[in-house]
Amino acid sequence: MFKIDIKGFNALLSFLRHAGYAALGPTIRDGAIVYDEIGSTEDMPVGMGDAQEPGRYRLAKRDDDAIFGYGTSPQSWKKYFNPPRSKLFTAVMDGAGFKVVEEKPPATKLALIGVRPCELAALKIQDKIFFGGEFADKAYQARRENVLIIAVNCTAPCGTCFCASMNTGPAATGFYDICLTEVLKPGVHYFVALSGSEMGKVILSGLPGSPLGDQERQEAETLMKAAGQKMGRKLDTTGIKELLYGSYENKRWNEVAERCLACANCTMVCPTCFCSGVEDVTDLSGQKAERWKKWDSCFEKDFSYIHGGSVRQTHLGRYRQWMIHKLAAWHDQFGSSGCVGCGRCITWCPVGIDITEEAAAIRASSTAGAHGSGDK
Is the pLDDT reported for residue 216 higher than 70? Predict the structure, then answer.
């Protein structure tokens, strides 16, 4: 482990810039902390945090100069590797037929700065889906190459966070090049830096800093422990796959369906959701056509359309599909939960539907039913 101060952190950003990386990190835009290209700490949300509750997000001024003193951004890092809209190919009239030109993503070196542990878990899931296996996505693979990940352990969980329940935080356990823990106390501001790769070791060795003392190590560990106890939400995952598979007729689905707008906000902000569709567009002359991939959502009625109509006609059916897939069926498909506990789906639901609350209600009614006092 290594200790760097604010000068050392700015030296890290300078190194990345001179090494040809596009440094992507948190910045403030449109009243929210979002991810975009940054040059120095002046571009970052210094002294700003966030207040998040179901259906509510606000920036909040802190009483210190923390750089990473917020919970989660409304955006997730997946947008850089699985963009909301991307061109797949262009077809141009060539004699009696068409010449197809496949779109190739630009070869850009990216440095992700401030990746939370829950978001590391989400990137692992996206990588498993798109990077390997039988149906690997070449465009995703191209975008994920030459990516440097600088994680930041979470010390300021927000009101909708529950990563501790999902074993994805608040401390990172790997899948990064460098991991930082921000430590602040009166008159003191520094980062505990840990390398997670050979590249990370090389970068840290070139930064101004000092070896980590026992007291500083303990301060960082104390912050992690405190963050785990300050989670705004909890989700009991004990037997959750079997619980949800056995709850298709639970009356709680009717209650949540009366509130759900099927707006798809939860799937758009989710760092693991990956459903997409394709659309073809052509110019007026008919000489050129393009095929585009764009994010889609299982909350859209047409998403489940097959010959004869949509399979899931109701809000009930679509919410039930999303939640059971996320917390149960995902285990069967990909070997893990599809939820990392970031809480975005709770914060950005216009009516404040809380996945942890819904799971708890289904568990409670199922337990009551087992004792003969549940829904008939």
Answer: yes
What's the rounded Cα separation, in Å, for the pair 280 and 147? 31
DSSP code per residue over 50-116: EEEETTEEEEEE-SS--SS-S---SS-GGGGTS-SEEEEEEEEEETTEEEEEE-------EEEEEE-
> Phi and psi dihedrals of 149, rounded to 5?
-110, 120
Pairing relationship of beta strands 178-185 and 147-152 according to DSSP bridges:
parallel
- Over 50: is that where the pLDDT of 372 sits? no
Distance from C-alpha of 26 to C-alpha of 75, rounded to nearest angstrom? 10
Q: Which two tokens stand for residue 9?
A: 């952190």
Tens of pLDDT, residue by residue over 16-73, are 999 999 999 999 999 999 999 999 999 999 999 999 999 999 999 999 999 999 999 9
Instruction: Please provide the DSSP assignment of 227-293 as one string.
Output: HHH--S-----TTHHHHHHT-TT-THHHHHHHH-----HHHHH-SS---EEEEEEE-TTSSEEEEEE
Q: What is the pTM of this model?
A: 0.92
What is the rounded distance in angstroms from the CA atom of residue 345 to the CA atom of residue 128? 22
Cβ proximity of 138 and 144 under 8 Å: no
Query: From the DSSP assignment, how many helices (H) and strands (E) are in the chain?
Result: 12, 16
The mean of the pLDDT values for the chain is 92
Compute the distance between CA of residue 366 and CA of residue 244 in angstroms, rounded to an integer.
Answer: 10
Question: What number is the average pLDDT over the span 226-238?
Answer: 93
Q: Compute the C-alpha angle 204/120/362, nearest 5°.
A: 155
